histidine kinase
Amino acid sequence: MTIQNKIALIFTVLSAGIILALSIYIYIFASESISGSFYHRLEVRAGIVGHAALEENKSKTSVYYDFKEKHLGDLPFENHHVIHNVNSARAGNIKSSLHLPESFYSQIRFDTPARFFRSDTSYVGMKIAKGDKNVLVLSTAVDVFGLAEMENLKNLLVTGFLISMFFVFTFGKLFSAQIFRPIRLIIRNVKGINAHNLHQRLVPNGSNDDISDLSKTFNDMLDRLEITFEVQNNFVSNASHELKTPLTVISGEAQIGLSIPGLPQNAIDSFHTIYRESERLEHLTNSMLSLAQTGFDGKKEQWEELRIDELILDVKEAVDKIIPSNHVAINFDHLPDDDQKLILNGNKTLLKAAFSNIVLNSCKYSDNKPVTVIIKADHTYAIVEITDEGIGIPDREINQIFVPFFRASNTEKYKGYGIGLPLAHNIIRMHQGKVDVHSRVDEGTRFVTYLPFK
């Protein structure tokens, strides 16, 4: 998940928490307000019924009920139970029929109006006293309108919450997109900068903010990289000329010396040594220069479309010239049905050098035993597997084989400089690929290269 989406999601979650808490508060406050108002209305009616029950002049009793009927009206499903203090049997019957908690009656004993709510029904209990007489009034009713109002409020809050979440997430995405627009612009510009156009720079947005500081920091880094690459480029170019010239002269002089007739044997041996070591030094120098060149501009050669199977055939041809007696076999049985998965965008010369180094290493360290090359593809990469039956690589050293000049501990009897595999690894990485190595000592090694097809 991108940082932009994370910010939009966090903003939505925080807003949802705040809106949800506010909605719950509004619902609880409205519920308590509506239920409190209804309890009060029910208590007023219970008080009128209680005073009517205590009225000794029965002719005046109707006055209470007339007042209640004309000025207050009946509540939905309103019902009153009057218990005189001497009628314990009636009290027991009413208690058993209402199934109210004991705490409800305890409040009434302390002359405190009791309230209780269950299954949409509101209950109130009051003790009404007049002189030495008192009655217990238990009243029930259903707040039909209040419950409907609370249901409407709940639906309104839920709908408002969902609508607000839609707008919060939408505006959060727009807000985060606006915030990250300069960063995306920087990323797009940085992706377009490589070793071929290190002179390009990011354009600051003109404001003194963190984005402007980031652009300036990138530009400073690019200044340092450009200087470093120019120094390396100049060194490689100059070294290629300055080193090859004297080596060619030394090799030529050694050959001239060998052609002089009548030389003593010790002089001939010295010329042979000079010639052999100059050739060895020239090969080492060329390998080092190739390794250095892959670090900055790919020999300045343009990349092109190429087929991986045709490239491997070229590699086999090159290996045949160097080791005519090799046992390298190419297996085409796993080629993908879609030819597009075999087409790469790369530098043919460099890739040929990379695979040639791996195959030649497999031949050398297996004492020219069979080497199998398999070409296949998955949904992302063209894959080349190179398997030998050689000496293998010790487990503790397998992570170091791509370090320049490193040679495994079991390769003493084989000539080499530890440059071929690092060079191949650099070339594969230049092409946005990767190399996996699987090896067992005295059983063999399998190199699996992955190169993204076009």
Observations:
- Residues 3-54 form the longest helix (52 residues).
- The mean pLDDT is 85.
- The first strand starts at residue 79 and ends at 84.
- DSSP finds ten helices and eleven strands in the chain.
